[in-house]
Amino acid sequence: MVVMAATTSFFRIWSPRHGFGCMTSHSKLGCKVETIDVCDTKTTCDLSSCMQLKRKSDQATSGVMDWSMFVAAITTNFLEREMMFHLKKKSQTTVLDVGLGRLVQDGLIYRQNVCIRSYETGPDGKTSIETLMNHMQDTALNHTKTVGLLGDALGSTPEMKKKNLVWVVTKMQLVVDRYPTCDDVVQIDTWRAVSGKNSGRTDWLFRDSQTGKILVRASSNWVMMNKETRRLSKYPDEVRAELEQYYLDTPPILEDDTKNDMELDKSVEYVRKGLLATWKDLDMNQHVNNVRYLGWILESVPNQVQENYELASMTLEYRRECRKDNVLQSQTFVLSNSNGEKVDHNHVDCQHLLQLEGECKGKIMKGRTRWRLKLAKEGESWDN
Amino acid sequence: MVVMAATTSFFRIWSPRHGFGCMTSHSKLGCKVETIDVCDTKTTCDLSSCMQLKRKSDQATSGVMDWSMFVAAITTNFLEREMMFHLKKKSQTTVLDVGLGRLVQDGLIYRQNVCIRSYETGPDGKTSIETLMNHMQDTALNHTKTVGLLGDALGSTPEMKKKNLVWVVTKMQLVVDRYPTCDDVVQIDTWRAVSGKNSGRTDWLFRDSQTGKILVRASSNWVMMNKETRRLSKYPDEVRAELEQYYLDTPPILEDDTKNDMELDKSVEYVRKGLLATWKDLDMNQHVNNVRYLGWILESVPNQVQENYELASMTLEYRRECRKDNVLQSQTFVLSNSNGEKVDHNHVDCQHLLQLEGECKGKIMKGRTRWRLKLAKEGESWDN
């Protein structure tokens, strides 16, 4: 509960206790939320049972949907039984890497079980934040693929491909309650929603597939960019028509963090200069992947923070595109009180800036992170 | 076939055409090898059908083996059918991430199907060499787990754990015929063998699960190190007794590369200084993982090489441990002929050195790599 208190003080988190819809105008529809507690293993009500679902065209997609649901029915039953069997035996037998994704909740949520592989964990046995973001990206892509809208390898729809458009993330918010560890089977739900006139939203919810406990919540905003001109584009009607039947009519899983930057006078600055964007940092659209930007931000977070604290939450705002051969500098400002000390022993708050070096000092990304003291291992305490 | 010619000129590769056993003293046992060609999709004989298997104690492990084989029988049949079904439909439906490993070939080979996830591929759509090594590490760990010998999270056996011993890699050889791409389902076989008095060997064979074509071959040598003193250890009898029943009596899949370093007079040197080993580079045994060493080596390979060529083969020799807070420098020597030009337009040969910076200039790792010109995409040619 300390964790929850910490994270809610930083972000106002959407909580299943209050529910999608139940706090909105849809509450009149009679949605009931019962004994749900995100920290309680006795969760009795599925998250999405109180969601207000919106489906603009069932007919248009019935072929794909029905087929997928049919396959899901076979594979899910088999795999869930297998999974429980393996989980009980996993120390002695095979490792399970369940990856058969499927549509649930009237076809509006894509759900995939992901087994955390050994190399996805760090020295403390926990997954890195980059790994979580990789899985977010992968499941969103698989969602697009599953509904038959994958126009290219990076999630563009067929109409986007015709118009030479690609997705670009503008904002990413994430809260981690617990980091998964090796062999954990994590159930990842992802869904899309409308967000303003020219952008879309993708949300994720990670749960421990054994206990149902929520691990990670994330919400992101996306716009479209012309692949050739590299300029942002309006949301074409044809693309909207492709996507809107899969939109879930819900508020974001994390309430939009619109907090202004704090004063930086009383902060300690850490800088990592000369970060070069090379060919290896590009994705198949020849632009730098958003997970790479986070990696660069973390380059300037002092080791003492990364070693003794874990990232509890973050908001990243992507301002402009970084291109191959750009040289960047990453700045982290560790916030402190008026005496230059940390405000709270259990937490570190940081602000971040990633900008181009040289004459054109364009801001590539800015962000905020909150780090919480790692829980001491048995018989061990953190000095700091 | 150009690829094969290239790689065999660098390493003498074990080939199924000649077979395990068939070129050794076991050939008298009457093993027949028929029409196998590693580049032929019409491969008619399973690799391991001509292996000479060695099993010192069937009784000791029969419980685990029988149970595993039983589970494998259920899951394999189901998943293989499902897999083929999904592969045919994958562009429209769900992505498959098959990860149920199992023992095959009389329980001496561990086999796992791995689906390449979207984030495991680079700008050219192919997996990185680090990703291949991550999967090698993961499947070797799962092998140990499957036979019930996992004493800790990093592959130590129960007897090793009692004696405070961990595995340390001393040599890694790898040849890549083709890099897997996104959504490829790769069948990875791994097995262990004895290698000298105080070391063990682990080999891997990656195949395209649809065509059976060989993608990657790798062979590695391991010794034991005391976790506290950080000194190498003899191979204790108790550990040998645990492991030898799972040893396959075969030569390495890649013949041991004992070539001495070439003269470096006619080479161009590239250096990357100031590489800092931080907490993030450690694994759960608090030592730097061998995949990280490779990452550092690649830091000094010029971008022009990484962009226009792909790594075809490598030999890495791990000389001493690198510790947290060590500062390293990575050196790459691009080999050339007596006129200072590349020997062969289609290939780049490199030598590598990773050593400590400062007063104590200890060699951490040395290696050799061969890179081949990437195949031009349709309608595109490489300038270089």
TrEMBL record, chains A, B:
Keywords: Chloroplast, Fatty acid biosynthesis, Fatty acid metabolism, Hydrolase, Lipid biosynthesis, Lipid metabolism, Plastid, Transit peptide. The keyword Metal-binding does not apply. The keyword Chloroplast applies. Residues 108-242 form the Acyl-ACP thioesterase N-terminal hotdog domain. Its EC number is 3.1.2.-. Its main location: plastid. It is an enzyme of class 3 (hydrolase). It is found in: Plastid, Chloroplast. It comes from the Eukaryota. One of its GO terms (molecular function) is acyl carrier activity. Plays an essential role in chain termination during de novo fatty acid synthesis. Belongs to the acyl-ACP thioesterase family. This is Acyl-[acyl-carrier-protein] hydrolase. It comes from Artemisia annua.
